[in-house]
Amino acid sequence: MKGFKRIRDAYVRFVDKQGFPIIVTLCVAIITATALWTRHPEELPASPTPPVANVPAAQLMQQSLRDAITPAPSSTVTPRIMITPFDVTNILTPFSLETMVESSLPGVWGIHAALDLGCQLGEPIRAMADGTVISAGQDKLRGVWLLIDHGDGVEALYASMSMTADYLAGDRVKAGAVIGYGGNTMAEETALGQHLHVQVWRKGQLIDPLSLLQP
């Protein structure tokens, strides 16, 4: 009995010293476990779902496709459209950087980086677009000629004319304005008869004038 009494007395002393913290800890653990055990999934806060309007499925699909498209910058330049120098386009010699063409001078061959358009002697030649005259002149190589800056890096040489329409360097010209008259003054192409020799550069590169002309 004395041994049991000593054990009881020791237990009482331990409870007196440590009992309150133990009881508080047990209570907190029991409350937490009960709350977690009894909570249902339905009680979790739901994410709000935006209302969907009554829109046909095909329209929703088209809208999704439009939203998915991201326009990318173009790496090419849209060609500038010009008007033809004559009412009727009669091509005598096309533009070519690959095929060798014999000139009117015996034994002289070369590429034809221009466009030759047939015309009548004295037929009015129209400016293909608005622009500014760079220079004008007359020589055996190009005959009577006019060089015009048409903007956007496009420059055009009008050659083999019978005469120009009194334009000087720095003069402004409008699309369709008469800048000269049909002739055959270019020595290398006299065999073609009356025609206009048109040579075009875009940003310093020779291009086919037809790529800029309206059909």
Walk me through what this model shows.
The strands form two sheets. Strands 1, 4, 5, 6, 7, 8, 9, 10, 11 and 12 form a ten-stranded antiparallel β-sheet that branches. The chain has a two-stranded antiparallel ribbon with strand order 2-3. The termini are far apart. The radius of gyration is 46 Å and the shape is elongated. About 17% of the residues have low confidence. It is 23% helix and 32% strand. Strand 11 and strand 12 form a beta hairpin. The chain is an alpha+beta fold.
Map the helices and strands:
Layout: H1 2-38, H2 57-68, E1 91-93, E2 96-102, E3 109-112, E4 115-118, E5 124-126, E6 131-139, E7 143-151, E8 154-164, E9 172-173, E10 178-182, E11 195-202, E12 205-207
Antiparallel strand pairs: 1-4, 2-3, 4-11, 5-10, 6-7, 6-9, 7-8, 8-10, 8-11, 11-12
Taking the alpha carbons of the first and last residues, their distance comes to: 125 Å
Major sheet, described briefly?
Answer: 10 strands, antiparallel
Uncertain residue segments: 33-53, 64-78
The level of helicity is 10-25%
- Total count of strands: 12
Question: From the helix content, strand content and strand pairing, which structural class follows?
Answer: alpha+beta
Topology pattern, helix = H, strand = E:
HHEEEEEEEEEEEE
As an assembly, this protein is: single chain
Shape: elongated
**What would the average pLDDT be, to the nearest integer?**
75
Count of runs of 4 or more consecutive helical residues: 2
Share of residues in strands = 25-35%
Radius of gyration: 46 Å
